[in-house]
């Protein structure tokens, strides 16, 4: 019976399409339909008013997705009003939506106001509006708009989010048992942030903690306590509190005060900087900690083999300390110099960075003289940029810098600058020195290769950065290295990129740093990966990585070779050979990445001394947290277990939810509300709504267009969404909020009857209490209801107004072929 009913619905739908084709259009854009094609007893009792005029929308309020020149910019509640002639309707554009169009001033003046907070774009030449399938499409000629970059969302459309509280964490636990009884120990470490969003302000506290069983030492520190807010129309960020100076001219410095700086993430992609990467090799499942001046910047667990950390913040600059802690308790350390592209600025634009405050240390005490610091970059022309800056703390310390940048077009970009310092030592001696720097970057798109950064820096013996001056004068650290020369280069190249069976990638890195007062350090390495085909087997891949680090007189060599053969969908069998300082260990491996939320790998082999070894790695992404678990075993040596737990908690006036998180401080997050319906999967099963219908999609990249998606194919059969995707652009640290109308319940056929025993007209709409459409009335009052529940009250509308309500009987069942519903 249900099959017959559904077939009839499809037949009626086809007839409605025929009606549309059998329409006659008039000069006033009104369309009359030939209803004779409908097999209906009463052809006069049909509500096709919303189809009778081209793009006609009955007057009222509608929640619509807004597209501007094809680009989605979020949802708006749009009011439609009748025109003075009464035969048409038009959309009322609010002042907030007009601002989001990013019109030039002369175009903004042409927009006419119809009513209070109701504007019309019809007076803007060339502008057009069209409503279809819940979307309001606004097309504006590009000549009227401020910006023209398809890959960038202008600041008028950024969303500061809503008020709320947040807490993010990353916890790492390690247990190691040495079989010879020499050292058994365990450790727990963690870092993260907590804070609140109030309007455009973000209040944050960053923390780190650790516990080591061998000395029972427990530590907990607040790295920073600060507040910041984005200033979109200035492409800048204002920060108050404990700050790390983030300058492209001067070295990093911790201070307490104020900072106002251009935020390059707000700029078009071509003008944004370079986010640092950390490459290395882990001999076993290992914990990798990246820190700067004692502050943990990033911490994670990596499986044995080559690793590449790519999600560091672009605001991290200067020298990073990398510590790789193996599961047998051994550690290796090296340093990475973060690189910046040449300091170029678009023509006529000025980028700036101004700070004022007092240097501070980790116990939050002030130490040193108050200072001011500022730097800038001015786009003189399409090819040239002038940049520089100054720092001063009175007679104690001062520095000045000047440089030029040049866009070499096909040859890349280059910049050169000089910084001169004047500092007073503890004995009163005044030192005067200069530091010179050269930077170069080039991306060769046509050759699938790039020189990410190449640089040279030379500092005279008496040159001091402000951080070096403070260390020497107030902390008496005479062992602090004073840089002399530094060479650094990072490059990559992909050969045969268009042929998947032959694609080969090469990565090279080299850093050399020597000092005036201590030993030099070097780090260089390379990695090569290749995919190829053997007979009928395609997708075979091989990789070779080798790194050498010479730091403080200690040399570490690491080599890794891997070979993998496909064993099905995202499954591989492989051979891994690793060598560290002459000690090698071949391992057979099996990897299964077929489920994005459950990734795992196991390996087994033997060392060159014949000792068996095995290890495993498992990553679980759940709604509440991301869990990385690993275990290692080496015969006659040790057994170890490690776990990393990453997650967060976000609460707003709309609800609260736990979620996974990368525990970074610069990303935004999106809270999703599904009207109390739980179990709704989002964004490729990365998140799922809880029992209260709330979920949080974490790690949204700030100032980038982001799609929040309902995984329709993975929805339960009894859930009907009103839409499946929403697009927005969030500012740094924002808590976004999106409502997805949902109906959950049965699917059933019903007949609607009015009090006089007539039926609602063909084309009437049925809505639930949340405003989600659950049916359209067909012939003889028939309606196929989807996502409804017993005792639920539904609203029936036609002619642009709510006309009556129906209440489903208790115990309604979709097995019932037809249900009579009085509409009162």
TrEMBL record:
PapC N-terminal domain: residues covered: 33-173
GO CC term (a single one): cell outer membrane
Membrane topology, as annotated: Multi-pass membrane protein
One function term, GO molecular function aspect: fimbrial usher porin activity
InterPro entries in UniProt: Fimb_usher, Fimbrial_membr_usher_CS, FimD_plug_dom, PapC-like_C, PapC-like_C_sf, PapC_N, PapC_N_sf
GO biological process: pilus assembly
Organism from which the protein derives: Erwinia tasmaniensis (strain DSM 17950 / CFBP 7177 / CIP 109463 / NCPPB 4357 / Et1/99)
Record-annotated PapC-like C-terminal domain positions: 750-807
Family statement drawn from the similarity comment of this UniProt entry: Belongs to the fimbrial export usher family.
Keyword Signal: yes
Entry keyword annotation includes Transmembrane: yes
Protein name, as recorded: Outer membrane usher protein PmfC
């Amino acid at each position: 019976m249900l099959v017959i009913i559904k077939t009839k619905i499809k037949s009626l739908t086809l007839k409605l399409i025929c009606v549309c084709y059998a329409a006659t259009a008039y000069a006033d854009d009104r369309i009359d339909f030939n209803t004779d094609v409908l097999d209906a007893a009463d052809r006069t009792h049909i509500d096709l008013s919303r189809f009778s005029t081209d793009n006609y929308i009955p007057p009222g309020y509608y929640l619509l997705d807004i597209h501007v020149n094809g680009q989605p910019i979020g949802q708006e509640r749009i009011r439609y009003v009748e025109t003075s002639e009464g035969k048409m309707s038009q959309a009322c554009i609010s002042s907030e939506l007009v601002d989001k169009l990013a019109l030039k001033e002369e175009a903004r003046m042409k927009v006419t106001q119809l009513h209070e907070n109701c504007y019309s774009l019809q007076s803007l030449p060339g502008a057009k509006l069209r409503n279809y399938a819940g979307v309001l499409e606004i097309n504006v000629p590009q000549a009227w708009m401020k910006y023209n970059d398809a890959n960038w969302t202008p600041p008028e459309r950024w969303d500061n989010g809503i008020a709320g509280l947040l807490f993010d964490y990353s916890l790492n636990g390690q247990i190691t048992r040495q079989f010879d009884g020499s050292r058994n120990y365990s450790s727990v470490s963690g870092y993260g942030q907590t804070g609140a969003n109030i309007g455009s302000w973000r209040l944050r506290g960053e923390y780190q903690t650790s516990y080591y069983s061998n000395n029972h030492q427990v530590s907990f520190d607040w790295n920073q306590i600060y507040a910041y807010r984005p200033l979109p129309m200035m492409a800048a960020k204002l920060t108050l509190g404990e700050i790390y100076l983030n300058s492209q001219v001067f070295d990093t410095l911790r201070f307490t005060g104020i900072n106002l700086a251009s935020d390059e993430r707000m700029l078009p992609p071509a003008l944004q900087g370079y986010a640092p990467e950390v490459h290395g090799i882990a001999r076993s499942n290992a914990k990798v900690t990246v820190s700067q001046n004692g502050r943990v910047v990033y911490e994670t667990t990596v499986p044995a083999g080559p690793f590449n950390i790519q999600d560091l913040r672009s605001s991290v600059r200067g020298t990073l300390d990398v510590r790789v802690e193996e599961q047998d308790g051994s550690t290796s350390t090296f340093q990475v110099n973060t690189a910046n592209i040449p300091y170029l600025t678009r023509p006529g634009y000025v980028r700036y960075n101004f700070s004022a405050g007092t240097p501070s240390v980790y116990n939050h005490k002030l130490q040193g003289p108050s200072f001011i610091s500022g730097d800038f970059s001015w786009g003189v022309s399409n090819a040239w940029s002038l940049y520089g800056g100054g720092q001063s703390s009175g007679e104690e310390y001062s520095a000045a810098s000047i440089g030029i940048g040049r866009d070499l077009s096909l040859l890349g970009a280059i910049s050169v600058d000089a910084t001169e310092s004047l500092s007073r030592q503890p004995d009163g001696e005044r030192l005067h020195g200069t530091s010179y720097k050269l930077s170069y970057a080039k991306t060769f798109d046509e050759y699938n290769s790039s020189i990410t950064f190449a640089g040279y820096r030379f500092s005279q013996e008496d040159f001091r950065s402000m951080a070096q001056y403070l260390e020497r004068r107030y902390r008496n650290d005479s062992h602090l290295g004073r840089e002399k020369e530094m060479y650094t280069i990072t490059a990559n190249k992909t050969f045969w990129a268009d042929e998947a069976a032959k694609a080969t990638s090469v990565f090279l890195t080299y850093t050399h740093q020597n000092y005036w007062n201590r030993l030099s350090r070097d780090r260089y390495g390379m990695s090569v990966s290749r995919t190829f085909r053997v007979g009928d087997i395609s997708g075979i891949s091989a990789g070779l990585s080798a790194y050498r680090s010479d730091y403080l007189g200690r040399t570490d060599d690491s080599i890794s070779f891997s070979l993998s053969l496909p064993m099905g969908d995202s499954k591989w069998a492989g051979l891994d050979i690793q060598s560290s300082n002459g000690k090698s260990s071949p391992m057979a491996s099996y990897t299964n990445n077929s489920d994005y939320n459950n990734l795992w790998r196991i390996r087994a082999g033997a060392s060159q001394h014949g000792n068996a070894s095995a290890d495993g790695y498992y990553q679980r992404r759940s709604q509440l947290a991301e869990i990385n678990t690993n275990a290692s075993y080496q015969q006659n040596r040790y057994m170890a277990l490690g776990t990393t737990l990453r997650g967060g908690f976000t609460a707003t006036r709309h609800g609260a939810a736990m979620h996974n998180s990368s525990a970074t401080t610069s990303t935004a997050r999106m809270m999703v509300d599904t009207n109390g319906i739980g179990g709704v999967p989002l964004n490729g099963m990365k998140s799922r709504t809880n029992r209260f219908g709330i979920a949080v999609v974490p790690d949204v990249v700030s100032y980038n267009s982001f799609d929040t998606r309902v995984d329709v194919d993975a929805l339960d059969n009894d859930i009907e969404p009103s839409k499946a995707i929403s697009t927005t652009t969030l500012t740094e640290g924002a808590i976004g909020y999106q409502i997805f109308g949902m109906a959950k319940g049965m699917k059933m056929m019903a007949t609607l009857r009015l009090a006089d025993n007539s039926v609602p007209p063909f084309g009437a709409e049925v809505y639930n209490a949340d405003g989600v459409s659950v049916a359209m009335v067909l012939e003889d009052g028939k309606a196929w209801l989807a996502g409804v529940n017993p005792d639920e009250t539904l609203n029936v509308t036609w002619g642009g107004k709510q006309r009556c309500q129906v209440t489903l009987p208790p115990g309604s069942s979709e097995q019932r072929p037809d249900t009579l519903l009085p509409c009162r």
